[in-house]
């Protein structure tokens, strides 16, 4: 069968997904495929040009290896404790302390907003943003959602409107936040090179690397904007959604298993719940795209031709009954899968393009990262969905989704007892 006869192939079985993602015979994440340029050239080309092509996530070969090698130290093992203890948890405590309970001692808040404000501080440090007053943090947060939507508008309804909002948000991010920060880092680099400032006095960050010219791609300010906005969208958006979904799923679990309520603040239980959430509900796009470089035959006999587009459905693979018993159910007490497969399956991807922030989320050596500690704080405060205010979600183009129960929350009202 030719590529023309079958323009794309679905890859849904876990064995096929893991084999292909680890293989060098498929080209990972061509931005034109992810943006679905073939179906919608105008919007697709906007996404490629403005949000995708300059990001290391969509690079290949030596360019990808070089930039990933440079960025990896920002989330290395010895940085995880600092990310958790010095950035994320203090900001969560500060925000919780600033909230005023009602007469009954209950605090009402939007969990999406709360988590975005917490994770933005981590992201700002990761990127190297400067002069982060409360007003600028609020601006930063207001831009996060539209920019994230712009990176993946191919899977959303009313794509033209979403792209327009994303472009406006990106322009404000570039002019009011990113470029002033990059100018500061370039001045600090000049002073470091002149011996006026020691290198250790400027914390490591993406913009510090860009100002030092560590990769030729970052010599172009437009590329710096794209690279940083992808880091921004990925670290704030996916982190927020993973915690919100875990709270949502645990609420249902505790209603059905009240005996587990005593485990609500246990870090091992929460880590397993977070991994189970990621297995079931991540990533928040319906599939990853690949381009086959040679012919393949999938385990069900499906033939793949060289040059063919592949839709690698991570969510479907993570519900493979051969790997996970009762695979569609959320079960934080699910036995560990056999072999080397993690509890989260392929929720972080696999191979050279595996999410490089994995350890920030799940920790290191089996110990939970910042997300688990945030969940412990929320569970300790008795977090529960607000029965009077249902959550709202981004409207997706469901024709692209084989699995329909993966909302991307815009709001998720909850109550706490603090």
Automatic annotation (TrEMBL):
This is Cytochrome P450. InterPro entries: Cyt_P450 (IPR001128), Cyt_P450_B (IPR002397), Cyt_P450_sf (IPR036396). It comes from Sporichthya brevicatena. It holds the Pfam family p450. Belongs to the cytochrome P450 family. Gene3D superfamilies: Cytochrome P450.
